[in-house]
Amino acid sequence: MKNIIVGTAGHIDHGKTTLIRALTGVDTDRLEEEKRRGISIDLGFAHLDHAGIRFGFVDVPGHERFVKNMLAGVGGIDGVLLVIAADESIKPQTREHFEICRLLGIRHGMIALTKADLVDPDMLELVKLEASDLAAGSFLEHAPIVPVSAVTGQGLEDLRAALLALAQQAAGRRPDGLARLPIDRAFSMRGFGTVVTGTLISGTLRVEDEVEIYPGARRLRVRGLQVHGGAVGAASAGQRTAVNLAGIETSDLRRGMTLAPAGLLHTTQAIDCQLNLLASAPPLKHGAPVHFHAGTAEVEAEVRLLKGAGNLEPGSSGFLRLLLGEPLLLLPGDRFIVRMFSPVFTIGGGIVIDNAPSPQFRKHLALERLPELLDAPLARRLFLWASEQPAGARVSQLAARAGALPAELLAAAAQSGLAVVKDPEPRLVPLSVLAATHEGLRAALAEFHRRNPLLPGMPKSAAPGESFLIDAILPAARDIVAEGEHLRLAAFQPRMQQDEDAAAAKMEALFRDAALAVPAVNDVLAQSGLDPNRARTVLQLLLRQGRLIKVSTELIYHQSAIQMLREILAARKGQRFAVAEFKDWTGISRKYAIPLLEWLDRERVTRREGDKRLVL
Predict the structure, then answer these.
(1) Quick check: pTM over 0.85?
(2) Between 20 and 30 A from 376 (CA), which of 98, 450, 524, 556?
(3) CATH 1.25.60.10 fits 268-359, yes or no
(4) Top-level class of domain 2-169
(5) CA distance 406 to 287
């Protein structure tokens, strides 16, 4: 069943609540004061199942004193039912509610001329013309205008038909996206505990889901769900939803908080946005305080203009930054309303572009990027955000910034010129950054080889750039080789100078001529003719080339001596022997025999068995 949320709008006492009662049979005035005074003070809710569509109605108060309550109800609606009493026509709150709906980007709706039974046909026609003039050039320009009477039933069928047409036009909300429920009520129910309600504006909530309260950073469990009074296992986007929460008291919750997946999002106290200022508003000054309304939340905010030193003029739009007095969960694309601080009235509204703007407040940079971010698809926004950081951005960071699930980001990365790199969690990195890392490493290795022609390569720890970027480029970098903890150019081969060649030959001869009774390493280095550092580097090269073999810290053998030793033992395969016998076979002392035998054990040429060894 398709779910459509319809919000009422209109002046006080124009019959919004009575009309909803006539359509649904539900009295949305739930407060004792509302019933006593005959006006709506807070939000009311009802639903209607009609022709395979479930309509959820959010009935808002029309009194100017309660516009903030009205704003808490219209943020999650799919269409508006603008109510104009035929006996009074358009009034101040009619216009303000209508402007609010325009500023919130609501695209669908209809106009109901209530109390049609109280006026004659000429008056009804006049009010209809005034309603048409009000809607001209707006999303309601071609919307149906339906005269109705909740008393006689006149026009109710026409209104239901208009609702069906609206449902066909409205695209509905994504049940597969990130779940988000702005809270409009929090209360306690006997036998259940804490319950919050709201319109699920995206995604799906399920019983036993772990969720988080934003702001507040409290992780909670969904104990139960209801949609329009009936228990369900899951609630989807576009449904009025009641959530029974475990692990929190009602006193810790308030209107304006948001339920969303745990550990994924972040609140913000600064947004970059586009603001449309109403023609009826005064000029908006840099530093001006305003009331900021988004979803069900209301906080104070301060304006930071991004362009020049002038004001934002009435009837114009501009990019600016808003500094919020309290943290809120806001995502790109969210609509908001701003109202004058004092006296309080609606002056404009806009759309969130960036919920994590750079604290480095450079106006010209912000103005350059915001127009591109405004209408950019997810893939482009990811690329722009990742490009603003030297080494890309973690997927978890971008998920909070984009308001999208990590799987969505990974899918979009393939279309955006970004590579997925482990750090150890996934990170999105521009391909240009990987190319620059590759080029920088190649240049650094060339310089390293020039300065250190005998060393096997540069230690990974000394390589320029982030280690995770280097790990990312190595699999496809055919010109760079990783050998253990060293990196080298594929074409590099260690080369010695003439005096180093002579020293290498001399050191090799000293070890070869000594056979199994090798000289001390320091003695060989001293006889090489090189300074100690260069001599040791040449020795390391001989070891890497396999011309010399290191048996222990103090003993190094020529490869020919080791080969001779292997042949001696190969002739005795399967034989058990003691250290004394090994000394007899090789003609060496215990000083050399013990380290050699331990090395042979490690090489699995022999195996120790108690006091003896077995030739394998």
Answers:
(1) no
(2) 98
(3) no
(4) alpha beta
(5) 37
